[in-house]
Amino acid sequence: MSLSPSERLRLYEMAEDTIHFLVANCSAQLAEEESRLHSDKTRIEQIRAQRRQLLSIGRALDHDNQAMLEEVIATYGPQLREARAAERRP
Fold it and tell me: Residue 75's domain spans which residues?
């Protein structure tokens, strides 16, 4: 199904927002882990790798590639919802 230009832009912004939120979440996790007295070096490297992957995906986003945008939202949307839910937990 072909989207109008405004619908494509909305889809692009949703994918971009999803990736940006997850990058910020990785940065927060990284800061938290690094601030611990006995930080887990393996966990730090995992977070850094995940953040690098997300940044790469963010740079590759193409507002004309509807399939890619939908895939990013489908793949990372659940992680976004999980991270937001975790923020609300006491």
Answer: 5-88
